[in-house]
Amino acid sequence: MRRILFNPVCWCVVLALVAPVNVLKAGGGSGPGGGHKHVVSAKAAAKAAAKISRSQDLRNISRLRETNNNGPSAKTPVASFAEEAAALYEEINLQEIGLTKKAFEYALKGYYYMLEHHWLSKTNILSICDLSQSSRNKRLYVLDLEQKTVLVNTYVAHGRNSGMEYARSFSNNPSSHKTSLGFYVTQDTYCGSNGLSLKMRGMEKGFNDRAGGRNIVVHGSEYVGPDFLQMNGVSGRSYGCPAIPADESQEIIDLIKEGSCLFIYHPTKRYISRSKILNG
User: Fold this and answer.
1) Whether residue 164 sits in one domain with residue 32
2) Greater confidence, 2 or 133?
3) What is the C-alpha to C-alpha distance for residues 136 and 138, in angstroms, rounded to an integer?
4) Which of 218, 36, 65, 57 is nearest to 145 (CA)?
5) pTM (2 decimals)?
6) Whole-number Cα distances in Å, 91 to 4, 68, 135, 148, 206
7) Given pLDDT bands bounded at 50, 70 and 90, which one contains residue 55?
8) Were 238 and a residue from 97, 194, 203, 243 both cysteine, which residue would form a disulfide, CB within 3.0 to 4.6 Å?
């Protein structure tokens, strides 16, 4: 027996015969090499979990992108997406409540990008602040894309240094008191000087990635809504936060908190042409 253990040729033969058996054993045993087999098993499990997560996100995308055309299509992805966005825009009747088609198309494109990159945990909600519109308008739209319904349509403020009735200037800089354009992922809530508030993570470097440091959050305010408009003619303005009517803030924040997509839109050429999400 000792000769077999110390004979190099025989040892190689034994390893060759045993190795396939060890690969098939899930537990790995307690002998030499057992720890290595556990590491390989952990890596395999992590890869499997990532694959499952990606499959779930892709299924979400597929479910949301169902169309009536069940046959093969020779259309380019760009043409197909434009038609899909237009069809969904009409199905949800977004034109009737004032959301511009271009804002929705950009929002949907970025939303799909964020789904594919696993940035969202609340995958059915898409919120759009359409700042191409007057602050007199109800320009915040909270959509349920799975049910294809509008959950909320209400007022939202822009930053005080972004403009008066219309927002025209935007910044990512601290103390600018301007709105930051682009895509955000909602986070958790807290109670501060403005009551219940919702943190957001800006996902676009150079455009809104300083949102956390600037304390840009969703919060309620008395300077946003029909009463303030009736008295002042235009909506109040914030320090850069997408402030919403105080009496609707609880409902809206509960709907969109913890991992949904929020898009602040304006047709500014610098943003539209340089956004990695929109051009990715």
Assistant:
1) no
2) 133
3) 7
4) 65
5) 0.77
6) 76, 13, 26, 8, 35
7) low
8) 243
